[in-house]
Amino acid sequence: MDRLNDSQLKGIRKILVIQLGPFGDVLLTTSYFEALRRRLPAAQLWFLVKEPYDLAIRDHPLIDRIMVISRRTGLGYALERLRTVFRIRRERFDLVIDQQLKPSSQQLTFLSGARYRLGYKEGRLSGAYNLKASFGPPRYSASGKFDILKPLGIEEEPYKIFFHVPARAAEYIDDWLREAGLDGTDLVCVSPGSPVARKKWNGAGFARLADLIQSGTACRVLLLWGPAELETAHHVESLMETDPVFAPRTDLHQAAALLRRCRLLVCNDGGLNHIAVTTGTATLAIFGPTDPAIWSPASVFSHHHHLHRPDFDSEADDSFGVTPEAAFEKAVEILSDRTGMAMTGEAMTGGGP
After folding, report:
1. Intervals of CATH 3.40.50.2000 along the chain
2. 264: phi > 0 → left, psi -120 to 50 → alpha, else beta; which?
3. What are phi and psi of 110, to 5 degrees?
């Protein structure tokens, strides 16, 4: 089956989207939800995800229910997956959309009992689907998510990405900024960590860039870190000649609230770069071995930027071929374009990488 007709679409009353993780992919999958709800206005929209990645979509205004798979190991993992199958079948979904495209999600889709099981025909276990889509041209992942909807008569359109920031998270950050004597108007957030080691620009590069920002502009650098990234942040701090502001421990919502108060985020390729899409924060991401054509928001959102050397062996050298001076020059350009950044007499620029 290649496409549903209008009569078949009208019969859809309950939809399950499967994207088990990680944070970035879960968040980006929601790019097409507005279009999906408009195409099927009478249908409930459910989302299946593993914990803790459900934090990326909590309180999303377009999602009716979130079904969360608990983290388990060994026998507990097998039992949790079995319970998940029974939960899915009990809900009697009309349409299951497998956005994950992994054997685990394909199995859940096949066993769902749904009338329509939608996935990509390029998948290894594409027999799990009776409604199949094809991948479109490579582009920012949030835009590419639309490809799976073509059998429903939905084409890519302009979109927004939503991430809910609870009031208590915003209040926590506002209180911390007040106590630290910061108003956030001249903060540049530098996030040097990543759960994926190969994506991390070297600490010396982040430290030098942070020093250039603090000595060459009127901005303060805020070092932001997430779970398991504290050591990386301290390492960057130890290499700096100037004193940065060290962020407090934050959860995902508090980190988003903090980004709202910053003029620029400098980071690696990762989930925080996508969170910044939802907060309206300008970004400069340093890319190494991953492809910015797919993972950088720059092609869709004008206030997002990246540096990348596709001709450089970034797997072997974590400088990624990007100098701190080149990153500083780009950061100055971004800040100046946004609001007219005040520069000091010590401003420095560097050549291209």
Report:
1. 6-152, 167-339
2. beta
3. -65, -35
Token pair in block for residue 12: 């859809």
Cα–Cα distance, 326 to 205 (Å, whole number): 11
Those residues whose C-beta lies under 8 Å from the C-beta of residue 76, and which sit 6 or more positions away, are none
Beta bridge partners of 283: 265, 304
Q: Which DSSP letter does residue 249 get?
A: P
Rounded Cα–Cα distance for residues 132 and 138 (Å): 18
Determine the 3-state secondary structure of 173 from DSSP: helix
Instruction: Yes or no: say if 350 and 328 are a contact pair by the CB < 8 Å rule.
Output: yes
**84 closest CA partner among 63, 107, 102:** 107
Q: Where are the alpha helices (DSSP H) in 183-270?
A: 203-216, 230-239, 252-260
The CB-based long-range contact list for 171-179 (8 Å cut-off, 24+ gap) reads: 172/254, 172/257, 173/250, 173/254, 173/257, 173/258, 173/260, 173/261, 174/257, 174/261, 176/248, 177/261
CB 221 within 8 A of CB 188: yes
Residue-level pLDDT at 206:
98
For the record, the structure tokens of 283 come out as 């970004």
Q: State whether residue 47 is helix, strand or coil.
A: strand
Classify 6-152 by CATH class.
alpha beta
Provide the pLDDT for residue 17.
Answer: 98
* Structure confidence by residue, pLDDT tens digits, 225-236: 998 999 999 999
In CATH, which superfamily holds the domain spanning 167-339? Glycogen Phosphorylase B; (3.40.50.2000)
Counting as low any pLDDT under 70, the low residues of the chain are 184, 338-353
Q: What is the pLDDT of residues 251-271, one digit of tens each?
A: 999 999 999 999 999 999 999
Task: Tell me the chain's radius of gyration from C-alpha atoms.
Answer: 22
Residue in 46, 45, 50, 47 with CA at minimum distance from that of residue 20: 50
Q: Under a CB-based contact definition with an 8 Å cutoff, are residues 301 and 285 in contact?
A: no
Strand segments, DSSP code E, in 115-260 are 116-120, 131-133, 187-191, 220-223, 245-246
